[in-house]
Amino acid sequence: MIRSLLIANRGEIACRVMRTARALGVRTVAVYSDADAKALHVRQADEAVHIGPSPATESYLCGDKIIEAAKATGAEAIHPGYGFLSENADFARAVAEAGLIWVGPSPESIEAMGLKDAAKKLMRAAGVPVTPGYDGESQATETLQNEADSIGYPVLIKAVAGGGGKGMRKVEEPADFLAALESCKREAKSSFGNDEVLLEKWITSPRHIEVQVFGDTHGDVVHLFERDCSLQRRHQKVIEEAPAPGMDAATREAICSAAVRAAKAVDYVGAGTIEFIADASAGLRADRVFFMEMNTRLQVEHPVTEEITGVDLVEWQLRVASGEPLPLRQEELSINGHAIEARLYAEDPAKGFLPSTGRLEYFQLQTGVRVETGYEAGDQVSPFYDSMIAKLVAHGETRDDACCDINVMCRNADIWPVRTNAGLLTALTEERAFLEGRFDTGYIEANQERLVAKPPLTEDGLDAAAVLVLGSPPTDENLLQSGFRLNATPIHHALLSVDGEPVRVEHWPEPSDQANYFGRAFRSSEGLIKFDQGFAYRIGPYEVRGSGHASATDGDIRSPMPGKVIAVDVTEGQVVEAGQRLMVLEAMKMEHALTAPFAGTVAELAAHEGQQVQVEALLARVEKAEN
Q1: Residue 442 carries which DSSP code?
Q2: What pLDDT digit, counting tens, does each position of 218-249 carry?
Q3: In terms of domains, do 268 and 152 share one?
């Protein structure tokens, strides 16, 4: 068994690997950038090494620095986690050449499956059905446009390297193809150092089904059944579960067997995932499931597989990397119950899922259940890395049990002031379509307006807020007396400010009942923060002021987050239409288009391409067109 391990990653996956390593008696070494100097994975490691500035390109993506850190600390092996260098064949080769153990597949396997176009050709040759599309060598814009026109719209542009939704665009119309291609290639180049793309036909009613595979150095490969990862936003997974809802035994056997054949075709060693896209318009059927790609690493969603199989996949990784055979044979693996994972992102769904950064002044997740995170209260959410801050994992005897438990976990995610998608997750796990397993990859987008809407405080939550803010009885200035007359007993009502709006509290609890109404709340510098239904509500006494309205003609374009301006599409004095793209901001490895709020003229251009900007920085100003 490996005795010392360097984890070439950060956040929750670094903490997750350390947990298993510690249980096996393996010494752990962390690496960290400037932004992560005080991060949880650094605090939990036996030893930690600083490897550079905050940008990943100067730290976590610098393989030579990581290998140097391993040698300096006496680490025997390197675990790459997922993302960063986990699917980089050159790094895997360099690790081996340095005399260290690489906890992952061989460089040859990574190369064979790491590029989506090459992998599809390999699978096609092996008789595995693949999604219709184009994966030819030519990257000429004209060729790609013509191929897209031939495939038929909608079409999906995908970076041949990487994953996580980066470098991926759905194109509805031929006129939109070139702009989408340009953005896709630019994002792919930034994220993976490779701007080559392939094209796929967009499948109606698509379900994202993947199979966990595992191979050892003795030639054995097993599968650990399937996962459903169909609930996504912007091509990034939000909720994953195992087994897949509606999966029959025949279809399971067909795709799991195909996954094992695919892994064997590249002599696969370690943990990997074969991803399929299913046309679920007529339910899950073996003849309507197509190979998409292989992820040659541990997946973010591996906990749901662990929960239904009872297997610690990180332990398997370390044992296989140490030369041991697979701990279990295929016939010894079985499905036990149902598991669901919800990804908690630091983002604001109501603002187009824009990333949210800053200090976690309050960070409380449900205890007594499985939570994977790389953060604690007081930690900083950095703009330099992926926005996922935790994974909530529920396991039950039935899918209904798991659905109920995951909903409770999402409701109890109390975080301030960083915005999260906990409210969306709460709403999503209450949807009838979710509870009945009737959804596809477009479900969140199709129902986004309803799912991201912030509901009013529940009656119990409002009552608790009234007591916590105003005390009991309420103060005179916040008390309305219905039917008041001298010496009469007033009927108590109160006005509260909830997120800046007046809300009338109809019920007032007796002092003896107040303990039952407090619920989950936190006193911050901005007043009382009441947590309810996955959302945070700012509560205070309502103060009546003179009326006034903000100008509806404000054309200031400000940065919604810290980031880098990577494209400017307009010049000062240019006439623009409402919704026209003005510039593109890159933050947390994603591109965000900033558009004109109305038709008018670019009166001021305050940012240029390549400029680093802070949140709320003025980027441009549009003056409204005269009617």
Answers
A1: T
A2: 999 999 999 999 999 988 999 999 999 999 99
A3: no
